[in-house]
Design a protein that fits this description.
Blueprint: H1 6-14, H2 27-46, E1 54-59, E2 62-66, H3 75-87, H4 90-103, H5 115-130, H6 133-147, E3 150-151, E4 156-157, E5 169-171, H7 178-186, H8 192-208, E6 218-221, E7 228-232, H9 244-261, H10 264-278, H11 305-318, H12 324-342, E8 361-364, E9 369-373, H13 376-393
Antiparallel strand pairs: 1-2, 3-4, 5-6, 6-7, 8-9
Pfam family, one: Glyco_hydro_88
Binding site for substrate: 114, 173, 233, 245, 249
Family: Belongs to the glycosyl hydrolase 88 family.
């Protein structure tokens, strides 16, 4: 009987990807080049979007677009605003404004917790750049809609509605939606929005994290008593594993909460999460994580470029609140991630990839959904990381 080379067999099974990095160009030049590329590439993407839909991915030669109530609906317009801000391309601005118009009905949507992703990444960037008062009003109405999902008995914002799997589920992703609540209160809105954000963040610190600062994906609560029913996962490798994008959401979320509150507990939490990620033995040399830090088949497991982009962007902000070796380490790690994502390994060639910028993201591996494909939010946080680096480090 022939001997089987297990490593080779696994490589064939999961698909081979080379993760070698290309020679580095100066960061200022890279950032400029990437935004020019994005302006051109998103013209390709724009042609693949049916009226009233928002782009999500591209797989097997087909563009994938979803209804505006999908949680990712705000990332396309948000990316366009980042591209316009850097390039001043009027065609990009026109497309960004048109994309916002499509999203306007979401301002009164209360069906899930993702109004921050949907309406702040989009209208928030639009207002930041244009100061259009209509955009600010939409953000405020969106914050009011999101606040309806706060559950006082549990001291959290409920993520998903009750279903056969969960009573009152709260996912770590929800930390990202607190940015809109903070901003709304700080910019003339009801002070209760920020109070809700702080309360949710505090409950999440208490219940979502392990002693090593890794996060569970889902915590399910008893809606009457507030007791924790279970700690589990939906998109991670196991209930006890560290789903990579979830660690990114946690890092970004607590860094952002420190920005709005200057609460040292949030800064401590963000640093702890950052050190967990950066010191993890399963973090590859190019610092783009596998889809889960405990994924089966490492080192042949699929990567998640979206997790890399989110973590890079968060580290760049966290570096603003630290100094000395800590600041240098966070900046250096983010640089490595950006150079990796900009390389031929992860960044698409012009006109390819359905118009998306990045390849090799993983949406929900256990659900066999969006595996090794471009994802709209990977592009968004990649562009944000580039813009942040330019603003804070050049």
């Amino acid at each position: 009987m022939k001997k089987i080379n297990l490593a080779a067999t696994l490589l064939l099974f999961v698909g081979s990807v080379s993760y070698a990095q290309s020679p580095k160009k100066p960061m200022a030049q890279l950032i400029n080049d990437e935004f020019k590329f994005a302006a051109s590439q998103y013209q390709v993407l724009a042609k693949n979007i049916p009226a009233g839909k928002t782009p999500q991915s591209f797989d097997k030669g087909k563009s994938i677009n979803y209804d505006i109530k999908w949680w990712c609906s705000g990332f396309y317009s948000g990316s366009l605003w980042y591209i316009y801000e850097q390039t001043k391309n009027e065609q990009v601005k026109n497309e960004a404004e048109a994309a916002l118009k499509v999203l306007e009905p979401n301002q009164t949507f209360t069906g899930n917790h993702d109004l921050g992703f949907m309406m702040y990444c989009s209208f928030g960037n639009g207002y930041r750049i244009t100061k259009n008062p209509a955009y600010k009003e939409i953000i405020q109405r969106s914050a009011q809609s999101l606040s309806t999902r706060f559950r006082p008995k549990i001291q959290v914002i409920q993520s998903w509605d009750k279903n056969k799997y969960w009573e009152c589920p709260v996912i770590i992703d929800n930390m990202m939606n607190l940015e809109m609540l903070n901003w709304a209160s700080d910019n003339g809105g009801n002070p209760k929005y920020k109070e809700i954000a702080i309360t949710h963040a505090n409950t999440t610190i208490k219940n979502h994290f392990r002693p090593d600062f890794s996060s569970y994906h889902v915590v399910d609560y008893n809606p009457q008593t507030g007791d924790v029913l279970k700690k589990a996962t939906w998109q991670g490798a196991a209930n006890c594993s560290a789903w990579s994008r979830g660690q990114g959401w946690a890092l970004y979320g607590y860094t952002m909460m420190y920005r709005f509150t200057k609460d040292q507990n949030y800064l401590k939490q963000a640093k702890g999460i950052a050190n967990y990620i950066l010191n993890h033995p399963n973090l590859p040399a190019d610092k783009i994580p596998y889809w889960d830090f405990d994924a089966p088949l490492i080192p042949y497991a699929k990567r998640d470029a979206s997790a890399g982009a989110i973590i890079a962007s968060a580290l760049l902000e966290l570096g603003q609140y630290t100094d000395g070796k800590e600041k240098a380490d966070f900046k250096s790690a983010a640089e490595t991630m950006i150079y990796s994502l900009a390389s031929d390994t992860y960044r698409a060639k012009a006109g390819e990839n359905g118009g998306f910028l990045l390849m090799h993201s993983t949406g929900a591996f256990p659900l066999n959904s969006e595996i090794d494909v471009p994802l709209v939010y990977a592009d968004y946080y990649y562009l944000e990381a580039l813009a942040r680096y330019k603003k804070w480090y050049l």
